[in-house]
TrEMBL record:
GO terms for molecular function: DNA binding; DNA-binding transcription factor activity. InterPro entries: ArgP, LTTR, LysR_HTH_N, LysR_subst-bd, WH-like_DNA-bd_sf, WH_DNA-bd_sf. It comes from the Bacteria. Gene3D superfamilies: 3.40.190.290, Winged helix-like DNA-binding domain superfamily/Winged helix DNA-binding domain. SUPFAM superfamilies: Periplasmic binding protein-like II (SSF53850), Winged helix' DNA-binding domain (SSF46785). This is LysR family transcriptional regulator, chromosome initiation inhibitor. Pfam families: HTH_1, LysR_substrate. Belongs to the LysR transcriptional regulatory family.
Length: 303
């Protein structure tokens, strides 16, 4: 089996993670020419192109395999650092900042329960990188080898990975009290949902459409959308009377309790089942991540 130069592997990872040769050079503190040379040497060793020079840059299938290998090596080094710190606390440690431990989590989990789960690990100086994507798409980051774990709606474990159920996050339809009085005095009904706008993260987000379809037994739903790409931003938009939000009940709980927001379809909640997927490797760090996220989800989500 070939032995790959760790510096060349980290160069490949930097190009993909930073989105270009110039920023990769800045991160690695080398010249752009050195980045190109390291990549060419690695491609020559593998016998295949590793980066598609498109906009944005993206790894080829071979590049994805090497990227996954690089991140697994980072994980092994992070485990070694933890073990050395336990044996010799005075040993200077800490994974290098450019050797980030990356996971993908949906924005609503970040806004509600997931951040607290990661607190202790971050205090241990873990250089964590959280990549945000829709819960229906976070597994693609894991599939491509760009993260070591993800929170997703996918039930089946990916090849080479293990899966742990986390629980369900209920979503409810809410609006500001003034918006509801003006536009939806009877709440949401099958006859008026087309008269108002709904908030979505982006064009991939179908949460509002799924909620309305399930609430009223419809197969296809066309909604008017306003796009606000953050959970906190959507709550502010709802409070300002921009539109209806289909948001986690956890996020809306306080506003519903104080009456500043109202639930537009009482008794109708859309439970989204979440799962933690990660590489199936023996790793204390992965085990710690899994335990932390599972415990936090048990406290916050519906079994």
């Amino acid at each position: 089996m070939s032995t790959y130069d760790p510096a060349a592997l980290e160069c490949l990872a930097a190009i993909v993670e930073e989105g270009g040769f110039e920023r990769a050079a800045q991160r690695l503190n080398v010249t752009q020419s050195a980045v190109s040379q390291r990549l060419r040497a690695l491609e020559a060793q593998v016998g295949s192109v590793l980066i598609v020079r498109s906009r944005p840059l993206r790894p080829t299938s071979a590049g994805q395999l090497l990227l996954k290998h690089t991140k697994q090596m980072r994980l092994l080094r992070a485990d070694l650092e933890r073990d050395l710190q336990e044996l010799a606390p005075s040993t200077p440690g800490g994974t290098r900042e450019d050797e980030r431990i990356s996971i993908a989590i949906n924005a609503d989990s970040i806004a509600t329960w997931a951040m607290g789960a990661l607190h202790d690990l971050v205090r241990q100086r873990l250089p964590l990188e959280i990549i945000v994507d829709d819960q229906d798409f976070t597994q693609e980051w894991l599939r491509s080898g760009q993260v070591l774990g993800c929170v997703t709606t996918l039930k089946q474990a990916l090849r080479g990975c293990k899966m742990v159920p986390l629980g369900a996050m209920p979503y409810v339809a809410v609006a500001s009290a003034s918006f509801a009085r003006k536009y939806l005095p009877q709440g949401l009904t099958p006859h008026n949902f087309r008269d108002v706008s709904f908030l979505s993260f982006n064009r991939k987000d179908d949460m509002a459409s799924e909620f309305v379809a399930r609430a009223f037994g419809l197969k296809r739903v066309a909604l008017n959308h306003l796009f606000v790409p953050s959970a906190e931003g959507q709550m502010r938009a709802v409070a300002a009377g921009w539109a209806v939000g289909v948001v986690p009940e956890l996020l809306a709980r306080d506003a519903l309790a104080d009456g500043s927001m109202v639930e537009l379809a009482p008794g109708c909640a859309l439970p989204i089942q979440l799962y933690w997927h990660c590489w199936n490797l023996e790793s204390e760090l992965l085990d710690a991540l899994t335990a932390a996220l599972t415990h936090a989800a048990t406290e916050a989500l519906v079994p």
